[in-house]
Design a protein that fits this description.
By secondary structure, the protein is α/β, with parallel strands linked by helices. It has 13 helices and 15 strands. Helix 2 packs across helix 4 and helix 4 packs parallel to helix 5. It is globular. The protein binds flavin mononucleotide.
């Protein structure tokens, strides 16, 4: 009976345990979690989502208050087009987070950064280029291009001295998205080093419509695999979304996948950024407590717990402090939904906005409880305390369970 440890992810001469912990913003996949994956010989991701606020929290920088101070006069305005990020500060935040993480790295594994194109930051091209190149500057092992087609991202990095040596990959949810990416970058003579194929059961934003239930990971992986064989393209494929046991992972590795990307099981790891109290909500969730909705202003469907405190919140848009989802014209669909509601109920002090969510604020505060579809199985992966609460676990325990388990068994953490 094979286990994950019988396989290796190969990048040139390097061999890794074929387990990649996916990027989870905002600071859900912390440096601590990514470092554990690398120490254990796999691949961990940090996320570059909202890094100025993340570094304020971890390293006592003052990026958010300095931006808010600069744009304070605009707080009550509906028009957010003047609210821009200082590129120097974006670079500084990325440098700091990546440098500190890479300095702490131990072991034979790798640390990648997840970079979402949909964080358009009121200046999509410049901010994205700054984020990508700053991560390369500080020696990140690799970059996973996420949440978007990233048709221009390779070009943005092509003059960087590390463009050909860092591992660069992309997340796709269809063959078409991959074909577009390859076609657009054909002239650069540089293929992606890996392709994460994310199916409809993943957490965070989905690369599908609200008809996500019609799709399944296995079929998409098979289709992409057949295409790569036909085109004689040797690019490692890394399926993601709903791979819950070591045996689930083996079923992909044994049929040609290079590794698996997993996340949901690690949302209840001690090293994960989700606060312990919120992790209890993840443990307690039943399948009916999880939904895919259109509340994210990015326009992509997103999966979350129905109980997320951010749902229905009518908080004033916080773009002067955050503003990560402002498009290139300074618009965000939460602002529109908020203004509509304010116009309808001018006399009410605390409105509720049901159409969209202020994702920056609620992700930053861990009030948008995004999760994978199989979150309802987390309760079966741990022990209960005498008071009925669930034990969170060391990331190492979960990693080793994926690495060594067979027959869909899940080892419970040691008794405490
Ligand atoms: C809480 C949570 C947050 C996530 N955030 C992101 C993100 O910021 N960017 C991204 O590309 N994927 C994100 N994902 C997707 C994961 O990186 C991963 O590909 C996927 O969830 C794997 O499926 P699994 O959770 O069923 O193991 C997130 C997943 C979870 C569970």
């Amino acid at each position: 009976m094979k286990c994950v440890d019988d396989f290796r992810l190969r990048f040139g001469k390097r061999e890794l345990v074929p387990i990649m912990i996916g990027g989870m913003g905002v600071d859900i996949s912390t440096a601590a979690l990514a470092l554990e994956a690398a120490r254990l010989g796999g691949v961990g991701h940090i996320s570059d989502a909202m890094l100025p606020t993340v570094t304020d929290r971890h390293y006592k920088t003052k990026f958010v208050s300095s931006k808010l101070k600069q744009y304070k006069i605009n707080v009550l305005e509906a028009d957010k087009s003047i609210v821009q990020f200082d590129l120097g500060q974006v670079a500084e935040a990325t440098h700091l987070h990546v440098r500190k993480t890479m300095e702490a790295k131990r072991g034979e594994g790798m640390i990648f950064i997840n970079c979402m194109e949909k964080l358009t930051m009121n200046s999509p091209r410049e901010t994205l280029r700054t984020r990508l190149c700053s991560a390369l500057d500080e020696g990140i092992d690799g970059i996973t291009l996420a949440a978007g087609l990233h048709l221009g991202s390779f070009t943005m990095m092509k003059s960087h001295p590390r463009f050909r040596d860092a591992k660069l990959g992309i997340i796709v949810s269809s063959l078409r998205a991959l074909q577009l990416f390859l076609r657009k970058n054909a002239k650069l003579n540089r293929l992606p080093d890996y392709v994460v194929v994310e199916g409809p059961l993943a957490g965070g934003h989905l690369g599908f419509g609200m008809d996500w239930e019609k799709y399944d990971l296995r079929s998409i992986v098979n289709e992409i695999q057949a295409y790569l064989v036909a085109e004689k393209l040797d690019i490692p494929l890394i399926p993601a979304g709903g791979i819950f046991t070591g045996s689930d992972a083996v079923s992909f590795l044994a049929t040609g996948s290079a590794a698996v990307q997993v996340a949901t099981r690690f949302t209840v790891a001690k090293e994960c950024g989700i606060p312990l109290k919120v992790q209890q909500e993840y443990f307690k969730a039943s399948e009916q407590d999880i939904e895919v909705n259109m509340l994210s202003p990015t326009g992509y469907p997103m999966r979350m717990l129905k109980k997320s405190p951010g749902i229905g919140s009518g908080i004033r848009p916080n773009c002067e402090a955050f503003g990560y989802i402002l498009d290139g014209n300074g618009n965000c669909s939460y602002i529109d939904a908020y203004n509509r509601e304010m116009a309808l109920y001018p006399e009410i002090r605390k409105i509720s906005v049901k159409e969209k969510m202020c994702l920056c604020t609620h992700m930053r505060n861990y009030d948008c409880w995004t999760c994978g579809h199989l979150t309802y199985r987390l309760k079966d992966t741990t022990r209960r305390n005498p008071d009925g609460s669930y034990q969170s676990m060391a990331a190492e325990h979960i990693f080793h369970d994926y690495q060594y388990s067979t027959e869909h068994k899940i080892a419970l953490p040691p008794e405490i």
